[in-house]
Each structure stands twice: as structure tokens, then as C-alpha cells.
């Protein structure tokens, strides 16, 4: 999916919501456990309920790998379902891959050829040759970890070199030599608040994938104030706050309600910015 298509979806739906499919077998409604594939059944219901209000879905691979082969079958079925019934939605495999060149090449083949997702989260620690294999696929995106929402992000990401450039700023600056804003996004946690101003000084045109709104306490309004650009440039993810909004047989309706409410907030921010 190219950038123009993604931006058009944002304008058409007045939303830049990404629904995180962090589907935990221990947290989904108990009545689903009698299904042959409980996780896929859960995901399908969540997708059908929230699709009108979001532009992207982000399955987190840890939740699928944790149950072995059957979990990966659920992941594959979820991606195929999205491809068949919701082809205009942007798909993100949140796998945080990144290794030496040959290994990254295999990861790229896995997610871009076998599963055919639109994008993959990638860890930049090993440098250019660990990222470049993912950039060899036309129409596919790399979403590079930059400034994350967890407490431990301060251990390394804010470390300054002798020129007072922080590590996350260097990651963003250097990685722009590998790909432009039509191929690369950055993960920036919503809990970082005003740090979005610093991000935008280094990356004024790139899309940012923003986790941490909702359950982790990030403010949508603050993210938009400091991070929104002329074509939005944001995909704000909500996982637990949407998919676990309800735990009974009406869980999908509760998810839809939470997604709709967040979409309405986003529509207001887009209107305020004059985007749509």
C-alpha cells in the first residue's frame, strides 16, 4: 500500500486509528474457547466490528507465537481474512525483527511474501544491513523502532553522544539515508508527549506509528498537537482499550463502541488541522 492510498483512507474515514490485535488466549471471552480456533474467531469478530472506524490492524506476533503452531495458524488466518474482506486496511506485523543480512532476508520473505502484510516493525540496533533486506520489497513498509513508550526506553534511547544528539534522534537521522517517507515509518510512544516536537524536527515528513494511547495513558490530543503534519502522518494504535472492552458475548459491540469513540476524537483533531 502506498502513502497516497493510506492518506486517502484516513481522509475518507476521518480516522487514523490502528487496532492492535494483541489477542491473548487467557483474556478472550471464555465462551470462545469452545471454538476450533478461538483466537481467529475473536479476531474476526473484532475486525468486523471495528473496521468502519479504523484504517489499520496490528497483530502483535508475541501473542500468536506464545501458543506455537496453532497460534501462527490463527495469525495467518487473520491476515488472509483482512486481505480478502478488508483489503483497504493497512496491515502491520508487529514482530520487531532485525538481524544480520541473511537472517533479515528470511524474515522479510516470511512477512512480505508468505504472509503478505503491508509493513513490519523492525529493530534498528544492528544497523543498515539488518534493515535493508526489508526495503527491497516494493509497496512494503519498514516501521523502525525509534522512541518507545515503555519505562526502559530511557535506559538507551535518550542517551546523548558528545554532540548532544540523543540515540533515538541519531536512529531517525541516519535511517533516512536508507529510505524516504514513502517507505519508512517510526515507532514513537504516545507516553513521550512533547518529545514529538523533537521527533518532528528530525523527521518532519514521515508517518509515526504511535502506541500507548488508552491503557498506557498516552494523550491523543497531545500526540496530535505535537506530531500531526499536513497529511496527518500518524497511525495511533489502541489494543487492550478496544479489544478487551467487553468480556461477555457482546464483546465485539463493546469494541466497536470504543473504536467509534476514539475515531470521533480523531475526526475532531483532523478537522482542527484542516485535513478533513
Could you characterize the architecture of this molecule?
- The protein is α/β, with parallel strands linked by helices and 276 residues long.
- 43% of the residues lie in helices and 15% in strands.
- It has 12 helices and 8 strands.
- Strand 6, helix 9 and strand 7 (208-210) form a beta-alpha-beta unit.
- Helix 2 runs parallel beside helix 4 and helix 2 (38-50) crosses helix 12 (251-272).
- The longest helix has 22 residues, at 251-272.
- The chain starts with a helix and ends with a helix.
What would you say about this model in short?
The protein is built from 12 helices and 8 strands. The chain has helices at residues 3-13, 38-50, 61-65, 69-85, 101-114, 128-131, 153-156, 167-175, 195-202, 220-227, 240-243, 251-272, and strands at 17-21, 56-59, 90-97, 119-122, 141-147, 184-188, 208-210, 234-238.
Features:
276 residues; alpha/beta; eight-stranded parallel barrel; 12 helices; 8 strands
Share of helical residues: 40-55%
**Uncertain parts:** none
Specify the biggest β-sheet.
8 strands, parallel, barrel
- Figure out the total of helices: 12
Class by SSE composition: alpha/beta
**Helix and strand string, N-terminal first?**
HEHEHHEHEHEHHEHEHEHH
Strand content: 5-15%
Distance between the termini: 21 Å
- Name the overall outline: globular
| Residue-averaged pLDDT | 94
Amino acid at each position: 500500500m502506498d502513502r497516497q492510498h493510506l492518506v486517502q483512507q484516513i481522509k475518507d474515514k476521518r480516522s487514523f486509528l490502528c487496532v492492535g490485535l494483541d489477542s491473548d488466549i487467557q483474556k478472550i471471552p471464555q465462551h470462545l474457547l469452545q471454538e476450533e480456533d478461538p483466537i481467529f474467531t475473536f479476531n474476526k469478530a473484532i475486525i468486523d466490528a471495528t473496521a468502519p472506524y479504523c484504517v489499520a490492524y496490528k497483530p502483535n506476533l508475541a501473542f500468536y507465537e506464545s501458543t506455537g503452531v496453532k497460534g501462527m495458524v490463527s495469525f495467518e488466518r487473520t491476515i488472509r481474512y483482512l486481505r480478502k474482506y478488508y483489503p483497504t486496511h493497512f496491515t502491520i506485523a508487529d514482530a520487531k525483527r532485525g538481524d544480520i543480512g541473511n537472517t533479515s532476508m528470511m524474515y522479510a520473505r516470511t512477512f512480505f511474501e508468505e504472509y503478505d502484510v503491508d509493513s513490519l516493525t523492525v529493530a534498528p540496533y544492528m544497523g543498515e544491513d539488518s534493515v535493508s533486506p526489508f526495503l527491497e520489497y516494493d509497496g512494503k513498509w519498514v516501521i523502525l523502532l525509534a522512541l518507545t513508550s515503555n519505562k526502559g526506553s530511557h535506559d538507551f534511547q535518550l542517551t546523548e553522544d558528545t554532540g548532544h544528539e540523543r540515540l533515538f534522534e541519531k536512529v531517525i537521522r541516519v535511517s533516512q539515508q536508507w529510505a524516504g517517507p514513502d517507505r519508512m515509518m517510526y515507532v514513537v510512544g504516545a507516553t513521550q508527549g512533547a518529545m514529538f516536537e523533537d521527533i518532528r524536527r528530525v523527521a518532519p515528513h514521515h508517518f509515526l506509528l504511535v502506541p500507548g494511547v488508552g491503557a498506557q495513558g498516552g494523550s491523543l490530543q497531545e500526540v496530535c498537537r505535537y506530531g500531526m503534519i499536513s497529511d496527518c502522518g500518524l497511525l495511533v494504535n489502541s489494543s487492550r482499550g478496544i479489544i478487551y472492552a467487553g468480556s461477555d458475548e457482546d464483546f465485539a459491540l463493546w469494541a466497536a463502541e470504543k473504536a467509534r469513540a476514539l475515531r470521533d476524537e480523531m475526526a475532531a483533531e483532523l478537522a482542527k488541522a484542516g485535513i478533513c
